[in-house]
Amino acid sequence: VQEQTSPLFSAIREAVAGSSEGQPTLTAPLSRENAAVLRNYLPFMAPVPFGREGLSLGLGDRLGLAAPGHLRTVRGKGVKPVLAQQSIRELNLTARTYEDVLAAASWGVLEEGFHDGFSADGDHLKKSDEVKMALDLGFSMITLDCSEHIVGGVDDWSDAQVITTYEALPATYRQQLEELYLNREFQIGNARISYPESVFKRIVIVYGKALQYCEEIFSGLIRPCGRLVDFEVSIDETATPTTPAAHYFVAAELERLQVGVTSVAPRFCGEFQKAIDYIGNIRQFEQEFELHARIADTFGYRLSIHSGSDKLSVYPIISRYTQGRVHVKTAGTNWL
Description:
Largest sheet: 8 strands, parallel, barrel
Strand content: 5-15%
Number of helices: 12
Shape: elongated
Order of helices and strands: HHEHEHHEHEHHEEHEHEHEHE
Structural class: alpha/beta
Oligomer: single chain
Distance between the termini: 31 Å
Low-confidence stretches: none
């Protein structure tokens, strides 16, 4: 930091842990503590939310060394970089903390002189205390992993089991949803989404608790935090693909519950595994993805593609139907 006589330099010299030794420069370690201090003085070093528009890439630097390369890759291309993107599982595997992850992103931005904005994603967080921790540290995006609240295997249940489980739900809740969806049809582009009784009850059982949890996290932590935060709802960590009917139900309920999401990650048909191309029927994927994209457009949020690294066969499909208004998490391999 040069220009020793400037007010900014003087303030930074007092705040950071380093030494100027009477010289017109300040030498300080690239510590997470110093990064936190500098984010207060140099706003471009702090993460920002990206909202519901544009193309963003979740880049997730696993080792804390790749941010400069990521920034050189996206600079000038209209791509919004999510430099800091880690799940709790990944932190445990790499023996890092969210403070470390955010500091590495901030130092990379400073090194490259990148002033166009970057985001920090608390990725696949499942617990309220995890969400609060990420928010308290200044993360600008929260990806809520709802998998622990999604009921699996319901497609294989007998009709009797479905009826018993459904009727155990509160009567007022059932009545409310039945008035909104049961035996109704909704137009999405050239397609119609319908909710006959058998489909409707299974969807409610699968996603009902997850939606209530989303509302709890949003109203209890996201909305009161006092700043704009991108909120992504992840329903992809399940074995059962998200049908268009299930996606529409989730989207409509999020809107009814006044949960302000910027993106939703469905579980698409086929398989999205790390470091390899898409596995599955590409024709089926395209047919269903078009509907997923239209549903996202209807409710105004972006689709999110998880484990998006190396999915070269379906990138054109994703681009065609989202028109570049999408979030793609590519962190599985690109940091290498």
